[in-house]
Specification:
The protein is an alpha+beta fold. It is built from twelve helices and 17 strands. The structure holds flavin-adenine dinucleotide.
């Protein structure tokens, strides 16, 4: 029997370490240290944080905090590393990135069940007794993408380099907003946010002066410009572009500009901001969006971003145990599986390894509890509409919990579900 784990990022190290500490020998393949992918800086580190050094909230009443609690319950390596490398910070888990990754790297290198192989994988080994867990991330190198496209179909891998923020409708004051599609045409009803000239220009100017993420060579926009770039081309550019009010009159009156919100296909509680793909820093996105009328307390489920993101079409390609429908010996974890975020990526890497272990121990058909944030993420991956599928991070919009529970109660409930599940199955 052979287990190959491809990719030593956050997901791949979780998967390798989980299987290794449970007695399985694994081969961990990565481009590093021979080759360095476009977003990476450290040749010698596995589990590198490619951008921010924040792993987001640790609060029990926060979806990201819940995800971390679940990962800790499963003895996650990245949670262990984050405790070791934690920096003083408020409600977020902020780490020293070098201490974090070197802790992980030492754990991987010191484990005799893990064989590290520096190689760019361009095709997967196949055989009855050979298992693969692919965790090559949003920047999966092209030979492997081509392999998947050739073996399955060209639609197997999706790709985007821009996404608008996703917000919770419940966090908005919708009193002055109204539903209407442009010229009352088309199926989709948009929720419209009318802006006065004063509100529009204040918002426009804030976009222009907002702090942006440093751009790297690999980013390319191809006609899909960040909203702040459009705003900086002229103070009226946006109101003749994505904030155009024409056709969105309210009771015969045309607002000066209109921000349009489109219901996200999967969960009715989440809305997309139309045309708001952005390269602004996460903290700036929140600050500037709060300036819009009715957005004072806006909560973002996913921030806008602009970088290459390759992921498989999970609703079409994946089984509930994260194995491929077309090749059940191959499992997919990490951002390549269609989640978004550091901890989310590590979580699906860990789940892929747990599912492989269950299978090797003849417990096929046992599934991780769905009434958890990790279970909800996988549920989203396999149940989302393939047509509109886009990577998702931890949020309560995808988690079906009993309505009357407080967020703290949801936390305790989810952790208890995992503890009981572990006791029953291992
Ligand atoms: C530019 C950028 C910035 C991001 N910023 C954030 C952020 O601030 N916060 C956040 O929560 N999320 C962020 N993300 C999203 C996501 O959380 C990270 O990409 C995360 O690192 C994904 O983890 P992963 O393990 O799936 O993949 P990765 O961490 O990317 O690891 C994949 C590994 O696979 C290796 N690999 C790739 N192709 C091959 C191949 N063919 N053969 C062998 N090895 C291969 C790579 O060398 C790499 O080590 C960002 C993503 C990008 C691209």
């Amino acid at each position: 029997m052979k287990i190959n784990i491809i990719g030593g990022g956050l997901a791949g190290v979780e998967a390798s370490y989980y299987l290794a500490r449970n007695g399985y020998k694994v081969n961990l393949y990565d481009l590093k240290p021979d080759k360095l992918g476009p977003a990476f800086h450290y040749k010698d580190f596995f589990g590198e944080l490619v951008c921010s050094n924040s792993l987001k909230s640790v609060n029990k009443d926060n979806a990201s905090g819940l995800l971390k609690g679940e990962m800790e319950t499963l003895s996650s390596l990245i949670m262990e590393a984050s405790k070791f490398s934690k920096l003083p910070s408020g409600q977020d888990l902020v780490v020293d990135r070098e201490v974090f990754s070197s802790y992980i790297t030492n754990k991987i290198k010191d484990n005799k069940n893990i064989t590290i192989i520096s190689k760019e994988v361009s095709e997967l080994e196949e055989g009855e007794d050979i298992y693969n867990i692919v965790c090559t991330g949003p920047l999966t190198s092209s030979p492997l993408i081509e392999y998947f496209k050739g073996k399955y179909s060209s639609s197997f891998c999706s790709f985007y380099d821009a996404a608008a923020p996703l917000i919770y409708l419940s966090s908005l004051d919708t009193t002055n907003m109204y539903y209407k599609s442009r010229y009352d045409k088309g199926e989709g009803k948009y929720l419209n946010v009318p802006l006065t000239s004063q509100e529009y220009y204040a918002f426009n100017d804030a976009l222009v002066s907002g702090e942006r993420v440093e751009l790297h060579d690999f980013e390319h926009f191809e006609g899909c410009l960040p909203i702040e770039t459009m705003a900086s081309r002229g103070r009226d550019t946006l109101r003749f572009g994505p904030l155009k009010p024409k056709g969105l009159e309210k009771e015969g009156n045309r607002p000066y500009a209109v921000v349009q919100l489109r219901q996200d296909d999967v969960a009715g509680s989440l809305y997309n901001l139309v045309g708001f793909q952005t390269n602004l820093k996460y903290s700036e996105q929140k600050r500037i969006l709060s300036m819009l009328p009715g957005f004072k307390d806006v909560k973002l489920a996913r921030f806008g971003l602009m970088h290459r993101n390759t992921y498989i079409s999970s609703p079409e390609a994946l089984n509930r145990d994260l194995s491929l429908k077309n090749d059940s010996n191959t499992y997919i974890g990490g951002q390549f599986s269609g989640v978004e975020g550091y901890v989310e990526s590590a979580a699906t890497g860990l789940l892929a390894a747990i599912y492989l272990r269950l299978r090797l121990e003849n417990k096929k058909g046992v599934y991780f509890p769905i009434n958890t944030m990790m279970g909800s993420l996988v549920n989203y991956l396999v149940m989302a509409s393939p047509k509109h599928f886009a990577p998702m991070n931890a949020n309560y919009g995808i988690y079906q919990y009993p309505f009357k529970m407080s967020k703290e109660e949801v936390y305790d409930y989810s952790i208890k579900s995992i503890e009981e599940w572990l006791k029953k199955n291992f």
